[in-house]
Amino acid sequence: MIALADCNTFFASVERALHPGLKGKPVCVMSSNDGIIVALTSEAKALGLKRGDPVFKVKDILGKNGVAVFSGNLMLYAAMSKRVQSIMRRTVEHTECYSIDEQFLYLDGYEKHYDLVELMRGMIRQIALWTDIPVSVGIAKTKTLAKVASKFAKNYKGYKGVCMIDTDAKRRKALSLFELADVWGIGPGSLAKLISLGVTTPLQLADKRGEWVLKHFHKPIYQTWMELNGHPCIDTSELIARQTITTSRSFGNMISSEEELKASVASFASSCCSTLRGQDSAAGRISVFACSNRFREDLSQYGNIASQRLPVPSADTLEITAAALELAHKIYRPGIQFKKSGVILSDIVPGCCHNVLFDPVEKRDERVELSRTIDRMNHKYGLRTVGLAVAAGRNEQWKNRKEHLTPNYLTDIDQIMTVKI
DNA sequence: TCTGGGGTCCTAGGACCC
DNA sequence: TCTGGGGTCCTAGGACCC
Fold this sequence. Notes:
Elements: E1 2-7, H1 10-18, E2 27-30, E3 37-40, H2 42-45, H3 59-64, E4 68-71, H4 74-91, E5 95-99, E6 102-106, H5 116-131, E7 135-140, H6 143-155, E8 162-164, H7 168-177, H8 188-196, H9 202-206, H10 210-216, H11 219-228, E9 245-255, H12 258-278, E10 281-292, E11 303-314, H13 317-331, E12 338-350, H14 364-381, H15 389-392
Parallel strand pairs: 2-4, 7-8
Antiparallel strand pairs: 1-6, 1-7, 2-3, 5-6, 9-12, 10-11, 10-12
This protein binds a DNA duplex (18 and 18 nucleotides) through helix 8 and strand 9.
């Protein structure tokens, strides 16, 4: 059996754990620039708020109901995620991190010595005690079914946090009651097609013949069909290293000068490079994109992307930033109000330093060591302690707005919480 | 005035090879 | 009227996920 452990409204729960006065109150976490709502507690949902709502459109609801709003702080949430994961690993040996708030737990063998439901309830209590993060667990024979079970566990108090689908009767009942749109792997496109073919519940899909599924759909939906019938076939085993690394942001204010566009791109390139070195990899290809504000119909619209292959896979901030700036120059257009830019590193290979005949960069290993030294200084003394001047720019119109940021209580000794007794 | 960010996998189609 | 067969590699774009 496989369990999926899912943190309930994770980002909002982290904020609530660190602001204990908010227990039982509506809480929302916003995206960068405080632009949209990305996580919200059930109390906030009850007010009619939804994930994805632009904050400026719901300002009234937020204000009138005293909703606590926070600017998203991913560093903080990642640190809390690590704590929750470590408690899960104390309970189950073989686990697999699927996302910042979800973990698969492999329970094979545990049924001999434990009641699986009670084992998971014990783990949930431990997590609540040590972190204050509420967790729901679904148990079933496949990951897709475990996800279904975890939603039942989340939505019905009677399960006390854990729902197990361990018989065919339970599987059929669950699938007959579950929303087709909520099945893992079924997005808006497949949903519309399924409905047009007369399939409206997960059970109806599961009961179709395999040939029928393959006739109308491709491999991904076929795999979902297999899993709904209890045959495991989705492999999410962790990729050791990421295959692409992206840093992109919408700007706090629109910008129109090439210098500012380049400053943003240089800053994002640096950020990509330190992530790249963090996983001991090098990138063979770099892309830079920029676009105008698609919501401003009164302004001229423009978007473009340019890519370049690096002569040798590289993790050197200086080399990659130089390439990024050339690409930024290519796509820059005077007279456009830019709203967003980004840098994408791809063709990622393991290893930081590749010795190659006719390498245009001399002393590549020393250059990588320089970048690593900068990483260590920034880690020790705070982000952006040392960086490239070109990334600083002269004014910082493009920088994010974050007006409700929780301090990095869990990762920065200078921001640690003060307790007054 | 104000509308997020970062991933994966799959497929079709073009370019190129013999 | 007739116009090979069989590959590989690369890229763009769609669909989906959190």
